[in-house]
Amino acid sequence: MRRIALGLISAACGTVLVATPALADSPHFLFATNDVNQTTGALTTSFKEVGLGTGASSIDITLTADATALYQCYNNGGNHPKARNKETVTAALIGSGAFRVRNGQTTGSLTVGPPGPGDFSCPSGQTLFLEKVTYSNTFVFDQGGTMKHATPDPISTGTIHVRV
C-alpha cells in the first residue's frame, strides 16, 4: 500500500514538473496606450506583450479602432463659409505589423488614421482641412487572440486645422 501511495505521489510530482514549462507561456499585454498626433491626426498605440515563451522569434500584432473625422472647406481668406461644405467621415481602421520577440516579450507601436475625406471635396477657391479626429474602441491583439483595450479611449485631437 505504501509503495502504491509513493508511486502515485511520484507520478503526480512528475506531472507537475513536466507541466510547469507549459504554464510559462501565458501571453498577455501589460499595457496598450493611445496617443494622437496633433499635427497629422494619426493615432499611435504603444504596447508591451509578455509571456510569449522562447519558441517564437516574432509575433503579429494588430490595432483596430473606430475613427470619426471632421473635414471642412475654407476660402482663401481663411474663413469657413456657412454653406454645406463640411463633412463627417466615420471609418473602421486596422493596422498591423510583425514584432520581434526577445526573452518572451515584445514592445512596439502601431499607427493608423486619420480616415480620408472620401468623396468630399471643396468648390473652386476653397481648400480642404482636417479639423478634428476622434478614435474609440481601440484594441490591440496578437495572432493567438490575446487582446487588450487601449487607453485612453475615446481619444481626440481637439481642433487641429490640417490642410489636406
UniProtKB/TrEMBL annotation:
Residues 1-24 form the signal peptide. Keywords: Signal. It comes from the Bacteria. This is Uncharacterized protein.
